[in-house]
Write a structure and sequence with these properties.
By secondary structure, the chain is an alpha/beta fold. Helix content is about 45%, strand content about 15%. It has a 7-stranded parallel β-sheet with strand order 3-2-1-4-5-6-9, with helices on both faces. It binds NADP nicotinamide-adenine-dinucleotide phosphate (NAP). The site of NADP nicotinamide-adenine-dinucleotide phosphate has 30 residues, from helix 1.
Length: about 260
Amino acid sequence: MFAPLNPPLKDWAGKRVWLIGASSGIGAALARRLIDAGARVALTARDAARLAEVAGRAPNVLQLPMDVSEPGALARGAAELWACWGGIDAVFFVAARYRPVRAWELDDDDVDATLRTNVAAVMHGCAAVLPGMLVQQSGALVIVSSVAGYRGLPKALVYGASKAALINFAEVLYMDVRPRGLGVHLVCPGFVETPLTAQNDFTMPALISADEAAGHILTGLARGDFHIHFPKRFTGWLRVLRLLPYRLYFAAVRRMTGL
Ligand SMILES: NC(=O)c1ccc[n+]([C@@H]2O[C@H](COP(=O)([O-])OP(=O)(O)OC[C@H]3O[C@@H](n4cnc5c(N)ncnc54)[C@H](OP(=O)(O)O)[C@@H]3O)[C@@H](O)[C@H]2O)c1
């Protein structure tokens, strides 16, 4: 009925893709699917040994280990990829850190590390690749946020704020770069079984596997969606909660979580 908000991304064969946060969970699952689809892939995370495992024996896979929270790391990575590939077709910003935090557990080091990894690194990564993509007049920026960024949720005191920042960032980025030929995709997963959620001490509703999550993301990209959220049986409820006035929202969350 409506035209897609972004150029649909379907045929990955030969595409030059930088996956940031590819050593485990959703990023590793995306890497495996994109490698199988014939993309030329660069894998980034801190753990070089796990990146090598994800790369396996596939040709056309570069390993670019780094700590994205270190100043200048993403700019150096982007320059290296541009020199090697002559351009980049898509960047997936998947890397993040999460610690369940309640108000009385706020910790300076955790705040700094979370905001540097989850927010600043995405902005620095975009700053590093945008000049080249704007010259190309093409390229996709895939930003993985979370349903925890829709509205405040208990235990996501710092993480939720970092993901809310990414939602706002992706919206503004879209308005700036879509008219210049680029695509921006905002990914908001529900609960996915990965090392990140292994530390949760509660039953996670509508939990899906990392591979299912990767499948949802690639389906959304193939449709050209801006907002890719899944599984719908969970995110649908959260999108309704998003619309409630505060009095009803706070009461509903307290009732659902007991916190
Ligand atoms: N799992 C869920 O239920 C869920 C729900 C909503 C949103 N998300 C989002 O989905 C994305 C992937 O999460 P996941 O669940 O797949 O978690 P995960 O398995 O813990 O993966 C996180 C990835 O980020 C990398 N990373 C973390 N800090 C880094 C740093 N400083 N420098 C470079 N790489 C770093 C990790 O690699 P190294 O440790 O090797 O550096 C790893 O590859 C995240 O953005 C997360 O917020 C997840």
